[in-house]
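Quick one, tokens below:
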């Protein structure tokens, strides 16, 4: 881009114009006043925390990421509040956090996410407090951003993310761009290089949103990668007046609908898949999108997520900075959502109340999916405000492993040795106890959006190649009252059993010759029944893995339905009802 000059500080989101707008809202907008007071309460909690120090986590694979995230959270919360409503002690604390981090021996470039987040944190603080920092403080912080952040990104050992196709690409380019925009005047050549490189290669991280907005690493990683893309886009906008048209990338805008549907479940848990976590997340990024596009629906969705969950993630200040007034009327959002891509998803619910029935299912491909699990056909569902069929989540031992191959996704990958990520732990089928096959695409072949018959059908034959001729799975919510899961199968080898699996945190009681099951969470109960075939029966299995180093999955059980060999061509149909 060959940038010659940038606007005066502050130029990263909290420009003087934006600050004045927020001050006006604080005077005149009752909803903003209420939210700003809650924001203040969170800031007060932060002030009770100690100043961050350089700490490495991980038994085998060391990371400084928690420290970097803490510094970013503190600077964003305290800095945003102080710039809108002057609070000297917050200003002093932000400066103290920056000076402490600037004194770290390094920002742990060996795990470059650590470096990227710390660079972003100090870039924001440096920009927002440029006018009050002493020259010595400016020099120290600017030098740290350049020497411990920007320059380290040029090391060949750290540069794989530059052209990467996952969240690392988004987070690391963001950190370097924010650093470059903050200290531009101190090294224009290096700053231009950082910005030009991001403009050239950010597309490789954004291509995974296409075509329909599904983030293949799951909602948690959407929150990670997309938050930093939002930060970068917002700062490019405020500093340069243009943002490379990132919002127009195929599927990017649609991904905000994807994450809302996967995060706002009646149980306040998430429709998790891949290494995504099971907790729902507030979505402050949607306020930015609503502000940028003037589509108040996204502002409304952001407010809904905040009121529904009441959580304050480190990116929460985005919803303060880009606040736009919108009345919280009834959500006008469809009850179903379907998306194609490398990962395919389908979700349906009976309403947006917390008593609604919800079900979601995953299809698509396994091989080549970053953070992917062997989970084709896996489903989750909610009833009575509880999640009854759930996903166990990521395996901590993989993240801490120094063993080669744990991030590979080919059939022989050591990744599939871990119970939580292979198909035996997921809410899908197994034939003869074998794992699913990772090659091929397992598409959604039919969806219906009729409120009385919301259904999705997927072709799972590719994932059972060599194990069965055909397997078709259909999930449905019927008459807004009950769930049906039906698997039609053909050509299963005569010496192989067919096992249907569902992970749950419910207590399970089997009845009627193991044809029925009562599931209970506290005082709440639902009822499962095998409708067909007559030879199928329920059983209860442990969710404990074979090794002691893996997550032991305490509190989980497996509800299984099994058909003993030989398995005749037919259909396994299971119904879940609230009464």
């Amino acid at each position: 881009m060959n940038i010659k000059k940038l606007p005066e500080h502050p130029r990263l989101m909290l420009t003087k114009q934006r600050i004045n707008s927020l001050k006006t809202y604080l005077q005149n907008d009752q909803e903003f006043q209420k939210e700003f007071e809650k924001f203040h309460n969170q800031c007060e909690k932060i002030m009770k925390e100690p100043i961050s120090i350089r700490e490495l986590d991980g038994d085998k694979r060391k990371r400084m990421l928690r420290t970097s995230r803490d510094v970013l959270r503190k600077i964003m919360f305290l800095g945003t509040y102080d710039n809108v409503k002057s609070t000297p002690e917050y200003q002093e604390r932000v400066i103290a956090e920056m000076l402490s981090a600037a004194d770290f021996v390094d920002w742990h470039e060996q795990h470059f996410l650590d470096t990227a987040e710390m660079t972003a944190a100090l870039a924001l603080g440096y920009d927002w407090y440029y006018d009050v920092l002493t020259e010595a403080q400016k020099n120290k912080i600017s030098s740290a951003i350049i020497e411990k952040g920007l320059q380290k990104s040029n090391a060949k050992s750290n540069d794989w993310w530059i052209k990467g196709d996952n969240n690392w690409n988004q987070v690391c380019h963001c950190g370097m761009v924010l650093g470059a925009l903050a200290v531009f005047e101190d090294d224009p050549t290096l700053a231009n290089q950082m910005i030009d490189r991001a403009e050239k290669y950010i597309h490789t991280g954004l291509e995974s949103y296409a075509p329909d907005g599904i983030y293949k690493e799951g909602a948690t990683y959407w929150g990670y990668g997309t938050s930093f893309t939002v930060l970068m886009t917002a700062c490019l906008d405020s500093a340069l007046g243009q943002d490379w048209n990132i919002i127009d990338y195929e599927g990017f805008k649609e991904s905000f609908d994807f994450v809302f549907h996967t995060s706002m479940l009646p149980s306040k848990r998430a429709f998790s898949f891949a290494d995504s976590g099971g907790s729902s997340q507030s979505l402050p990024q949607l306020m930015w999108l609503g502000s940028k596009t003037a589509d108040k629906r996204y502002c409304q969705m952001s407010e809904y997520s905040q009121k529904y969950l009441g959580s304050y993630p480190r990116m929460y200040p985005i919803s303060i900075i880009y606040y736009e007034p919108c009345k919280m009327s009834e959500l006008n959002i469809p009850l179903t959502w379907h998306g194609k891509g490398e990962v395919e998803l389908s979700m349906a619910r009976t309403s947006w109340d917390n008593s609604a029935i919800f079900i979601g299912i995953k299809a698509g491909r396994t091989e080549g999916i970053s953070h992917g699990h062997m989970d084709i056909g896996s489903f989750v569902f909610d009833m009575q405000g509880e999640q009854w069929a759930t996903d166990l989540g990521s395996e901590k031992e993989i993240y801490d492993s120094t063993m080669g191959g744990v991030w590979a996704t080919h059939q022989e990958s050591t990744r599939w040795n871990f119970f939580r990520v292979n198909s035996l732990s997921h809410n899908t089928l197994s034939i003869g106890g074998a794992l699913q096959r990772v090659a091929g695409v397992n598409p959604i072949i039919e969806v219906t959006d009729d409120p009385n018959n919301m259904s999705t059908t997927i072709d799972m034959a590719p994932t059972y190649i060599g194990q069965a001729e055909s397997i078709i799975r259909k999930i449905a919510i019927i008459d807004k009252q009950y769930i049906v899961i039906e698997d039609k199968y053909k050509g299963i080898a005569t010496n192989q059993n067919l096992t249907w699996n569902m992970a749950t945190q419910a207590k399970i009681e089997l009845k009627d010759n193991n044809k029925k099951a009562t599931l209970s969470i506290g005082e709440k109960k639902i009822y499962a029944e095998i409708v067909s075939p007559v030879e199928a029966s329920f059983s209860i299995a442990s969710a404990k893995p074979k090794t002691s180093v893996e997550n032991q999955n305490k509190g989980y059980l497996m509800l299984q339905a099994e058909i003993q060999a030989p398995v005749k061509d037919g259909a396994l149909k299971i119904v879940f009802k609230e009464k």
